[in-house]
Queue: 2 jobs
Job 1
Amino acid sequence: MGRRRLAWIIAGAALAAGAGSFLACYIYIRGLDVSKLAEPLPEPTLILDRDGKPAAQLSASRIEPVPLPQMPKSLIDAVVAVEDKRFFEHPGVDVQSVVRALVRDVLRGGYSEGASTITQQLARNLFLNADKTLGRKLREAAYALKIDMTYGKDDILELYLNSIYLGEGSYGVQSAAKTYFGKNVQDLTLPEAALLAALPKAPSRYSPLRDEAQALERRNTVLALMRDQGKITAEAYERAKAAPLGVVKSGKGDGLKGRYPAYVDAVMSEAADRYGFTEEQLLTGGLRITTELDPAVQNAVDDVYKDDSLFPASKPIS
């Protein structure tokens, strides 16, 4: 057998093997089930008072979903700038970042967690565990490709922003906005948005409630990336960089949870007995339950019950 013929046989075999591997990967990715992403995120139920105003909130979920159009553009730009600058260009996996990470790993002689896109992070959070193995990384990439094949970029970004952990018990940007700034996400300023975008990499390390200096440095890094990527002007960068953190340390900011517990228990009981709602529907169905609650009267009643001097002491147990 001549050398040329042997070379052609080897090349053909390699090509067939490559095509077979590609087809196998394609079939595997196509067969992945990512329908979980189509399920609506749990939404809290609101108890409305007699004037139709929110009086209390019921929720078994840590997530408070907000539609992407209601989020400030500065927040979206900040997250994309720091987490995945080619998010709108790649198919779920950023090959350039993967190659760069592989080269870095070879030079360092170890395996790192770098190069995960926003879509890969979403896939890991929803479908995989957190073990740091090559097998898990490959499955994460496969899920990311399938997610990108199935859903639009805005849908993926909305799911990510509503579910990502941002520290201090806050899941999603709405909860984090209330935790750190005592406001809704749509009211965030540019420096506040940059601070939230700074957190996914290491929520505990960069939490402004734990280390203001670290949080400020990381926030300004995000702002610099936004400037360098043309998301904000140099003037906007300088103004935002000079702004204080503006963190509200007085609490979580959501005064509706846990209010009027006795009244709410009665409402839940009536909703279940009279209308057949399940507990899950009441806690996560996003219902709006209109009641005859009068906050002034209810607050007065609560104040009375809190005053032990108005009640006789219990008799000693014999």
Job 2
Amino acid sequence: MSAFLRKHAWVIGLAVLLAVLLGITKAIQPGFGASGLESLARAALPFAFATAGMAVVVIVGGIDLSVASMMAVCAVTAAVLMERMAGVPALMIVLGVGLAMGLINGALIVLTRVPDIVVTLAMLFVWEGVALLILESPGGNTADWLERATRGFVGIDLLPKPFVIMAICIALVWVPIRRSKLGLSIYAVGSDEMAAFRSGVPVGWTKVAAYGICGLFCAMGGLSLAALTGIGEPVPGPYLMASVAAVVLGGVVLGGGKGGLLGPIIAVFILRIIRTILTLMAVDPNVTTIVEGVIMVGVVMLGTALTLRGRRS
């Protein structure tokens, strides 16, 4: 038990912090209950998928600055397709589009050997342009069943549907991969690329696969955006910095090779509940944005400092 606690101390600490913040929210707003949890889960849903995708590429030792743009492409694609065909085929096409975009990002990084931050920054504008080509302005329509799937509760009033969807989708993708040879390769490449190469790990294919997984999670994020709004929004939302901050706060090392997805997902809820607390305290929305930005920058700077310190030691 003590070994388990030491190994997962950071994640357990995040869970305790989240519980404390929920308690503070309840103290500030006694009426905060099941409906408040459901609203929190809905707000966190697209952030969680963006964070899951970002976590995978950070673990492999990279970063993807185009996550928000890929989500926008998938959101508008879903909104356009669901006006013309049944929801399930459209959903599968959107997942394929997200996977393809991620694979393209990874392939460009591996083949050109240009730093991932440069490639994905360029692809941010490419995918943003693609989203605007599909829909010049917010529009389209999503299937009713997709919208209903992100509202309400499953069974009891303390289990919001968005949380269940988030847990199932992320687990279905990541758990099998984490326990497979690909998962071991992702961690090996992130820990030491040269050592992984000398051990026979296909470094290039592993990186491409990691970015493909990121694109798949971004497709889920785009679908959740379309489900929450009922339309497709071609302009990327504020998911890039938020996902990086949640990844670092969740215990994933920016240099790669360490961390998981549970911590970053808990961190997403921590960042969202902080915004809720500031809103309940009637803090000016502009000040709330400043506070969120300071927290995100502080978390990223701390993570970078810890990474550099680890490399020096």
